């Protein structure tokens, strides 16, 4: 299927267990799958890595511990691909997307943002999901050297003026309120 020009591209980033998948899932639920798709840059990476290493792709995609066992090695594997072509996973993840609103759920590096900014200069909005260390620990996060101090987690810590920041520390009402602006914008743009 041919990719169609999006009307809005929400570029999400955030630390491990800040809730990127949770928050982007909520937005897609509200907008519906005809209006909004979620693009995971890590999906083509995990698909190829699973195939090469005889692993379970679905489990690598899920929020459980399984993917954490392989995270450091997946990062290395993905970085070797990105060195040859920084837009490699951006291109694969967005291939065939036809909805007017795209949510990229896992931007990690400046090159991820730059690729979308260059391809869709009028449509992009960068969104940072933030959560306290305490919330992240409750969701299963433990500091891991080589992961939490590497570009995969820290690549967007500096140098980006995010268009929007969402605090996701577990208060559902507070979260809903923060999503309203993005939901209104998405509905407006997709008309
Ligand atoms: N506001 C919330 N309310 C309830 N549960 C939440 C909330 N935010 C996140 N979670 C839960 O915390 C866990 C981690 O969240 P999630 O997978 O969305 O984080 P992530 O930033 O995508 O992490 P990773 O980078 O590891 O993929 C999940 O089990 C998710 O359901
Ligand atoms: C290997 C990697 O793609 C894992 C991402 O997994 P997740 O988005 O945290 O589920 C991280 C990276 O590309 O640096």
UniProtKB/TrEMBL annotation:
EC class: transferase
Reactions the enzyme catalyzes: (R)-5-phosphomevalonate + ATP = (R)-5-diphosphomevalonate + ADP
Any single GO CC term annotated in Swiss-Prot or TrEMBL for this entry: cytosol
Protein localization: Cytoplasm, Cytosol
Annotated binding of substrate, by residue: 168
Name of a matching Pfam family: P-mevalo_kinase
Binding site for ATP: 15-21, 139, 178
Molecular-function GO terms, alphabetical: ATP binding; phosphomevalonate kinase activity
Keywords from the UniProt entry: ATP-binding, Cholesterol biosynthesis, Cholesterol metabolism, Cytoplasm, Kinase, Lipid biosynthesis, Lipid metabolism, Nucleotide-binding, Steroid biosynthesis, Steroid metabolism, Sterol biosynthesis, Sterol metabolism, Transferase
One example of a Gene Ontology biological process annotation: isopentenyl diphosphate biosynthetic process, mevalonate pathway
Parts of the chain that traverse the membrane: none
Pathway assigned to this chain's UniProt record: Isoprenoid biosynthesis; isopentenyl diphosphate biosynthesis via mevalonate pathway; isopentenyl diphosphate from (R)-mevalonate: step 2/3
Enzyme Commission number: 2.7.4.2
Domain of life of the source: Eukaryota
Function of the molecule: Catalyzes the reversible ATP-dependent phosphorylation of mevalonate 5-phosphate to produce mevalonate diphosphate and ADP, a key step in the mevalonic acid mediated biosynthesis of isopentenyl diphosphate and other polyisoprenoid metabolites.
Protein name: Phosphomevalonate kinase
Organism: Pygocentrus nattereri (Red-bellied piranha)
């Amino acid at each position: 299927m041919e990719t169609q020009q999006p009307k809005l591209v929400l570029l999400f980033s955030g630390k491990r267990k800040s809730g990127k998948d949770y928050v982007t899932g909520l937005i897609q639920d509200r907008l519906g799958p005809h209006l909004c798709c979620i693009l995971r840059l890590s999906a083509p990476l995990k698909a190829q890595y699973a195939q090469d290493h005889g692993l379970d792709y679905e489990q690598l995609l899920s929020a459980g511990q399984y993917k954490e066992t392989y995270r450091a090695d997946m990062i290395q594997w993905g970085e070797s691909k990105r060195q040859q072509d920084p837009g490699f996973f951006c291109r694969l993840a967005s291939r065939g997307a036809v909805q007017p609103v795209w949510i990229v759920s896992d931007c990690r590096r400046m090159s991820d943002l730059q690729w979308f900014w260059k391809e869709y200069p009028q449509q992009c909005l960068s969104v940072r999901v933030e959560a306290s260390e305490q919330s992240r620990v409750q969701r299963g996060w433990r500091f891991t050297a080589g992961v939490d101090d590497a570009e995969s987690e820290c690549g967007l810590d500096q140098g980006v003026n995010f268009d929007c920041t969402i605090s996701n520390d577990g208060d559902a009402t507070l979260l809903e309120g923060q999503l309203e602006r993005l939901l209104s914008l998405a509905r407006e743009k997709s008309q």
